């Protein structure tokens, strides 16, 4: 590492603008985290069984069906899903793309963690949280440092 980078890491006081920006990014990431988790799960359920039902989403996420219903309404309003009475939930083109990008980020983080010696089970669980909070720069660095066999 270079001396400037080492000094930046050693300093515990962050510049106000930098700190404000990192907190802003963290808040934005938390807001999008749920949306991404739902869309990715819906895509997985559809790929596995041909449909995503509210009851299945609630079970997989460990939440009550009214919680899922509220989020599905939000996802519909934001253009990620379509709901059909008695038929379940389907992703729109926008929803499919978000699910693809989310899955790709998850796989990069999980592969990176495995490549540095983290067990597959732990890497999978940790990647579920980390994937939403890494910047494109960090994600690219993880890809560069992950052996091809892990990607």
From TrEMBL:
InterPro entries: DtxR_MntR_Metal-Reg, Fe_dep_repressor, Fe_dep_repressor_sf, HTH_DTXR, Iron_dep_repressor, WH-like_DNA-bd_sf, WH_DNA-bd_sf. GO terms for molecular function: DNA binding; DNA-binding transcription factor activity; protein dimerization activity; transition metal ion binding. Its main location: cytoplasm. SMART domains: HTH_DTXR (SM00529). SUPFAM superfamilies: Iron-dependent repressor protein, dimerization domain, Winged helix' DNA-binding domain. Residues 31-92 form the HTH dtxR-type domain. Residues 1-25 are annotated as: Disordered. Pfam families: Fe_dep_repr_C, Fe_dep_repress. GO terms for cellular component: cytoplasm. Keywords: Activator, Cytoplasm, DNA-binding, Manganese, Repressor, Transcription, Transcription regulation. It is found in: Cytoplasm. The keyword Manganese applies. Homodimer. In the presence of manganese, represses expression of mntH and mntS. Up-regulates expression of mntP. Belongs to the DtxR/MntR family. This is Transcriptional regulator MntR. It comes from Rhizobium tibeticum.
């Amino acid at each position: 590492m270079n001396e400037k980078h080492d000094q930046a890491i050693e300093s515990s006081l962050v510049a106000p603008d930098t700190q404000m920006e990192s907190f802003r990014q963290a808040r934005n990431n938390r807001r999008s985290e749920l949306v991404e988790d739902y869309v990715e799960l819906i895509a997985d359920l559809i790929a596995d069984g041909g449909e995503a039902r509210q009851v299945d989403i609630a079970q997989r996420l460990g939440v009550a069906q009214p919680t899922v219903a509220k989020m599905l309404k939000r996802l519909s309003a934001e253009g990620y899903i379509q709901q059909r009475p008695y038929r379940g939930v389907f992703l729109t083109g926008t929803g499919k793309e978000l699910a693809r990008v989310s899955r790709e980020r998850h796989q990069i983080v999980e592969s990176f963690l495995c490549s540095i010696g983290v067990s597959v089970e732990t890497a999978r669980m940790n990647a579920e949280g980390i994937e939403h909070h890494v910047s494109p720069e960090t994600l690219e660095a993880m890809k560069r440092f992950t052996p091809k066999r892990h990607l």
